[in-house]
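Supplementary Text 2. Reproducibility record for the structural model of the 227-residue chain.

All settings were left at their defaults, and a single model was retained for analysis rather than an ensemble. We include the record here because the model underlies the residue-level annotations in Supplementary Table 4.
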Amino acid sequence: MCGVDTKGAADASPLLLEACHDMRQPIAGVLALAGATLTEPGLPKAARTRLEQIMEQAEWLADMIQSWLQADQPDESGGTDLARVVSETVAARCAGSRGGVNVVWPAEPVHASVHPVVIRRIMANVLDNAIRAAGPSGSVTIEIRSQDDWALVMVDDSGPGFGGIQTGLGLGLRAAARNVASYGGRLECGCAPLGGLRVSLWLPLSTHVSQRGPMREHRLLNVAPHG
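Retained model, structure tokens:
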């Protein structure tokens, strides 16, 4: 098992906060332009789909920036439904690709005491690393479950692991590890049954209970509950 160094993590600097503040306006412009284009008559279906995906990504970026600007405020979001956030993250990452990522979760929802924007940022980094390591002919599987007082997300790929991926692809894991550690969790790396790397995200389990709604299905994914 390998560790990911989290040393050197620091609070957001004033310069970063200023940059986040300045980025809000152009992101709002992207959302406005895309929204206006969606109202055009006769817009092809494929173009409409891409514009909707652009808006989803811009909205995610806006949420992420807002979370940075409010980093010193307490998180009152309650528990985050991991199956929902992970599935949405995979859908965004795999938009337009021919391959899919297998996502499985238990019959009962698993909630983590981590803000959903942070979960999505963590998963985007880990998933991007896994997809790149697996390559176009490889496979990636994500499993969500609870274990004792932890919410566990395991991301397996069939790629070469740390020893065979291109230089720099591990940067996302270090960023993910810092985010996980900031919430009292941990990130572990080991060998995956698929032959590549397994990244395990141990997140504080939330006691937040909500009625389970219908799980969203994504056309480009193989997503299904298990258990």
